[in-house]
Amino acid sequence: MASKTTPDLLALQRLYHWEAQKPNAVTLSQPMGGGVVKDYTWAQVADEVRRMAAHLQSFGWEPGSKVAILSKNCAWWMMSDLAIWMAGYVSVPLYPTLAADTVRQILTHSEAKAVFVGKLDGWQTMKPGIPDGMPCIGYPLSPADVVADHPGWDAICARTQPLAGKPARAEDELATLIYTSGTTGMPKGVMHTFGNFAWAFTAALKRVHLDGNDRMLSYLPLAHVVERVLVEHGWLRTGMRIYFAESLETFAADLQRTRPTVFFSVPRLWVKFQHGIHKKMPQSKLGLLLSIPIIRGIIRKKILTALGLDQCRMAAGGAAPMPLPLLQWYSSLGLNINEGYGMTENLAVSHITVPGQMQQGTVGPAYEGVQVRIAPDTSEIQMRSEALMLGYYKEPEQTRGAMTPDGWLRTGDKGHIDDEGLLRVTGRVKDLFKTGKGKYVAPAPIEDKLVMHDDVEACVVTGANLGQPLGIVMLAPDSVPKTKEPAAKAELEASLAEHMKAINAGLDPHERLQCLVVSTTPWSVDNDIVTPTFKVKRNRIEDIYARHYEAWEASGQKVIWHNA
Q: Is the full-model pTM beyond 0.90?
């Protein structure tokens, strides 16, 4: 096969490079609790990776065997990945929020030989998903019973001699199975090679400048493709310093500790940041202050410093569409967010807006080396590149279904390319629904507007076969207490009704929302309504709420409160 990249850009070779070139440079900063942070140099990283790789090889598994990682982000997560590769095996990351049944399904389907079990909030509910007899390797911050029942990371490294030399993996070798979080059905194991990762990050660097002086906070799941490529492989390629978040409660302090120069977040978290600022300073007051030239710079710096983003030179969003008003709001603060687009199947390297150019409302042009086309019959975005997956593990039929006969990836997303070559994603091909009047509705653009209300955390627009669509919203946690006081609840209801009225004024008649339904039940990963990257699972919304749709439509109310 034609070479995708040069051997020295493959993951393990990058580790050996930094081990030799910057052995004493601090590269990972791991919070240990109680305000203690443990720093790792490249020499320490390489030494522990070598020792763990030797331990894994001692099991005598066949080359290419699968080893899983079940943990929140931490230094040992990335060292585990490298150790698995150095030992000649294939890594299988699992989201740290999965239900036990899904944990078991992935471990069984992937034929994993062992699993690293690390930082977890819900280990006791996940533990039944570990097959009997499967070796578990704990981290220093693992749940106590993991280390009690099995040898831990530190103990293994202390008693094991490091693997010598520079074991290499070929670019066409399978590196990992990334099981998609998916908004429908069971996860599928996306197969990617070492060459895929190296090519993908090379393409990314041609659009986005990153180097060894950068700092990033790793907090979105490393099991997700964007965090894996941007953080893990960005770290290996550039030698940048990676900080890890300790917990949800310490996230604001973790950002302050890191002062990231590069920061990626999903839209839902960018919205939460905005809502937090609005609670301290209403938009009317903020807009007025930002309109005063002398005051503008002071306010911008104060807000960005409070967020921990005052040194951020590159901000990005993705994993779901970014509402245009949200992007414009951050630009008013002097923080231009670059919106990216991609999938697990192409290592998330498809499109991103060009830094320094105002391309808001689009996901920019394709990365160099990425080909894209729009299917004439469905408006589906289709693409191909050297970062395309090998396929879905043990699922040839699903692999064939994901590709066109001539080898292009079917993204399942609708869009169009403008005269400047910029891609606009307009929704999912299958998310379109037809009302009872025979008119099609694309929910995504309406949802982008709905979620801009300060009290709305997440939303879904639905209504197949109804006379008009309806919106279902989940309140932001800080807004829930308002529902306990009659006056505050009435004020919130009036505000939501006014918000819907303003949205409807800009929609075609068949798109206008009949009502807003406020779900008082939180939507979470735990109850399987959202994915680990905070995308709402539409099929679960239908399962839970569809039986009420006709009654809601017939009620004549503008805002309806519902306890599922």
A: no
